[in-house]
Design a protein that fits this description.
Elements (H helix, E strand, L loop, with lengths): L1 H21 L3 H8 L1
């Protein structure tokens, strides 16, 4: 069960990061880099 939860969490994180980086927002990118 723990493995499944970890996998799901990682998937969501990757999707969020992908969306954030895909978004044309220099301000958001700067905050992420910081």
């Amino acid at each position: 069960m723990r493995e499944g939860e970890r996998s799901g969490s990682r998937s969501v994180s990757h999707k969020m990061v992908f969306l954030f980086w895909n978004r044309p927002s220099p301000h958001q990118q700067s905050a992420c880099l910081k």
